[in-house]
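Weekly modeling sync, notes
Attendees: S.R. (lead), two postdocs, one rotation student

Agenda item 3: backlog of single-chain predictions. S.R. asked that every request posted to the team notebook include the full sequence so nobody has to chase files. The rotation student volunteered to paste the first one in as an example of the format we agreed on. Action items at the bottom.

Example entry:
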Amino acid sequence: MNRAGATFLSCCALAICISGIVLSDSLAISSRLYKSTPLDEILSAAPQKTADLQSEPENQEPSTAIPIPKLGDWAPRDGWGHLQKGFHPDVVPAEKCRAYSCFNFSKCPGPSLKIYTYPHLRNGPFRSLMGPFLSYINVSGLETVNPEEACIFIPPFDVACNHIEEKDENMLTKLRELPFWNNGRNHLIYYNNDEEPIVCYGFLDQAMYVSTTQSLTDFRIGYDISIPIFSELTRNIWLHYNRNAAIRHPAERKLLVTFKGSIYQSQGTIRRNLLALAKAYAAHPRIQLFFNCKFPFEERSINCGRLQRSFDSSPDFKNLLADSVFGLCPEGFGHHSFRLLESMMFGAIPVVLSDEYVLPFVPEVNWAECVIHYPEHLVLDMFSRLSEMPPAAVRKRQLKCLELFEKYFVDNVDPANPARADGERNAFHHVFNFLAARSIPHTAARDF
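Predicted structure, as returned to the notebook:
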């Protein structure tokens, strides 16, 4: 290693050490500040309910959302079907794939999207998490048994791995043996798991990912599709969603910020930082954080028994969110969080604490006016910042979240229709809408 490289590594190590010291000191300062300057002083001016959102004054709220990626690498629709002169897609690195460079548009003449699932996939076996995806395709009217008329191909393997040790070392070899693989072009890999697909398998030639955990680092905008992860609550939307309760005004909600979820030894630092904040603001009536801690930690400072007792005696999860203005959505084992859709379902504004998380359906869906994508390194002043948000801005975000939630996860729900029986399959409906709009030339987004 040359001298410049050694100097760079030394600086990185020093920065990490300083970051750890600052975090430790900041948590202590946060605790002292609470004792000397309670958050009640910041929250003393409670939001007042107004009869009509439009009558509320315009605000100049500073945006805390991470900007939606721009579409600079997305070719104009008129040029999607034609590659540049002398350009060959085989030389495009998988991590650089975009629709115009790695997708064969000639296979998608329209007027509708056609999907081919390899025969051995239709007969199983596959994990239960993959079942709803395949079931939706089967009843959607999009499936074809003729590969010659297919626009999208679904590989016959379940590629998800819960841990890196579970990966199939021969996966890429198996994929390359498929008769229509063609370097992965026009193949869609469904990935529903905590571990990132890139961590498990990397880029599988030029195949697209539809995944519940996409990172900003590896997400190929306009090519991959990020989808939400569903819990039992959001999967069974028609059983739990009550619009009249969800639209309840923030001024009528007793709690400012809440979180109720698990914490494990192997999870990242963000939930540990929340645990430190929970201790600092434990006496505050409008901040309630509860941690399910069934597995003891090595650190003596984390008392799992006390945390578990508090969790077990905490309010019902649904009632807690229904009475909250903001719902914290920290990353867990993956970048994603069940709390994103759960918060929206009960009318709480999601506060995403995961710097690398790609929100669902980006870039087709713009979340900037709904979700607060809060930077992890600024989490120590988060409660104060949230409490300072103007009432009009809070209400505006809440209503925008409900608008997006109903449009993408509720509107197509029909318990009588097995293709649209729950929120998860409803999300698949939009995945293929977006794929149709991207792949069929001169066609606007459609509704099948």
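Discussion: group reviewed the output briefly. The chain is about 35% helix and 10% strand.
Action items: rotation student to repeat for the remaining queue; S.R. to check formatting next week.
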